Amino acid sequence: MAKLKVSGKVHVVKKNKKGDVIVDHAGKNDPKWDKINLTKKAGAKTVKEGVKATKEWHKKNPHTKGKK
User: Fold this and answer.
1) Distance in angstroms (rounded) separating the CA atoms of residues 40 and 26
2) FRET pair for 34, CA 20 to 30 Å: which of 5, 12, 28, 67?
């Protein structure tokens, strides 16, 4: 399991019981945790690959809500 802060949000990357790499993250105004399967979305097979995929996605898709 790995915890990282990307784009101002805490992300938790871990493997589930099936062996899939999952990332959980919550928004500032949204306490609900969103789970994204990185094995299906990004082909990640390890937690390290999941962390890399999360960082790359946020680099390509920065959060710009409210900014111009």
Assistant:
1) 20
2) 67
Q: What values do phi and psi take at 49, rounded to 5?
A: -65, -35
Tokens describing residue 38: 């990185």
Q: Does residue 17 lie within any of the structural domains?
A: yes
Name the token pair of 59.
Answer: 């680099």
* DSSP 8-state secondary structure symbol assigned to residue 33: P
| 16-58 tens-digit pLDDT | 999 999 999 866 666 666 889 999 999 999 999 999 999 999 8
Q: What range defines the domain where residue 7 resides?
A: 2-60
Supply the Cα-derived Rg of the chain in whole angstroms. Answer: 12
How many whole angstroms separate alpha carbon 57 and alpha carbon 55?
A: 6
CA end-to-end span of the chain? 35
